[in-house]
């Protein structure tokens, strides 16, 4: 092992300086114990886009983190997923501090996200006038100009609970009752203190990009999106999505569960079965109502289009909707959009030179439109079948429809008006399915709908495709990019929206996904995300998966769904099959 030309090794005094090594090979040197933010601030790209955190030796850190030994450091900017979260978390903290300073007798709720980049907020015990919203925004800008520090403190859990009790933050007190650790990180901005699930920027001076936009009974705290980190995008109207959120809010009120602390209390009190059964009943009620809408328009609207982002439960929803339609006397035929992929070598490429299977160009829409028209006209049609092994389109089964029979067409482009070409929108009924989580940790700490879907997908990928959690997390960014391009811009085209979120699901999914997340190797990019999700799931009391009905949306992700092999009645060459 050892050669004759051994290097000279000796004990030495600790250097007063340390080095940080950047991904591009540059090396920065500075005094030992200096915060990583001071190192990164010396870079010419410090502001383009703004650096808000760092990954130090494969661990996500705040800019105040001291560098006590030589380290590998990757800057985290507002254009990165973790950086965007740091910024959104910090701007929310700024909002709550300014709000409580100006309106101490009112109760603010950070409710849900909006597509253009922002959070819908409302006052639970009143409402703000336009002048009061403007005053709040002005105060926030003043605090940014003052560059006030966001001080981080690690305190005993009992101290934090006592503080929130004194502030009458009952939702926070209830949540912390079930915390599994004895310490808690509190942040302070002037006289305001709170905990937040994750890291913050060092001071308010970083928070230059935001606006408050009045909307209905509240306002939107607008922030930049990752692809334009120094720009606020125009805020489109989203009345249908807002209605879906309002409906879910009513469900939570009906259940008496308006925060994770209340959910944990219900589980501890032995109400788990009640919560699950009522939640599932509300789902079934909504599916039945959508089926009734379809029946009323069935004479004209014979194509039911279903679209939504990944892991929203579209497959299970489609089958449960079919059951409801069958119960009301309609026999739908399921046409699989995936069978209309173009041959693999004709698939368009994305900006990275990879085949983009989520673009409209990946579908043979001309043939699909022709087949739909002929089916609706009562003709016999030989459908297409896509062979995923060879990447080639092949002749499929021969089908015709009975008079009045509906077609259910599920796929990513279902709400895009270009999908069906000259087929009139009046002949379609469009449904948007998404997991619109509105249950929050507390009034200021949101649960991301994206996180809920990623957890669902991690479980399904492991069970059905053999993917590791690392592989699922690695692909997630590409999936999200496709959703932003091909789904979210068209969600308001829907005739109906189905919210597949279930109030109890993270209590149930957490124990199942935790072993998968813990297998993500340290030192990988996906490890940082897995660690964040693991930390987040610690807030939930566990639930037994056996309590979940076998037709639940969640069975699509945890297995044992009674609907897995369910097939619709089909009319083939004049015969009905089951």
How would you describe this structure to a colleague?
It is a single chain. The chain is built from 15 helices and 23 strands. The chain has 578 residues and is of the alpha+beta class. The chain folds into three domains: 17-77, Ubiquitin-like (UB roll) (Roll), CATH 3.10.20; 94-222, Threonyl-tRNA Synthetase, Chain A, domain 2, CATH 3.30.980; 239-332 and 405-577, 3-Layer(aba) Sandwich (Rossmann fold). The strands form seven sheets. It has a five-stranded mixed sheet. The protein has a five-stranded parallel sheet with strand order 16-19-15-20-21. Strand 1 (17-21) and strand 2 form a beta hairpin. Helix 2 (81-102) packs across helix 3 (130-145). The longest helix is centred in the middle third of the chain and has 25 residues, at 272-296.
User: At CATH's second level, what is the architecture of the largest domain?
Assistant: 3-Layer(aba) Sandwich
Spatial sequence of strands, sheet with the most strands: 2-1-7-4-5
Low-confidence stretches: 570-578
How much of the sequence lies in strands comes to 15-25%
- What form results from the Cα inertia axes? globular
> How many domain modules?
3
Separate helix tally: 15
Supply the helix-strand structural class: alpha+beta
Using the coordinates above, name the CATH class of the largest domain.
Alpha Beta
| Global mean pLDDT | 93
Give me the Rg, rounded.
Answer: 26 Å
Percent helix: 25-40%
Largest sheet: 5 strands, mixed
- Examine the coordinates and then state which fold CATH places here, giving the name of the CATH topology of the largest domain: Rossmann fold
Report the count of strand segments. Answer: 23
Distance between the termini: 71 Å
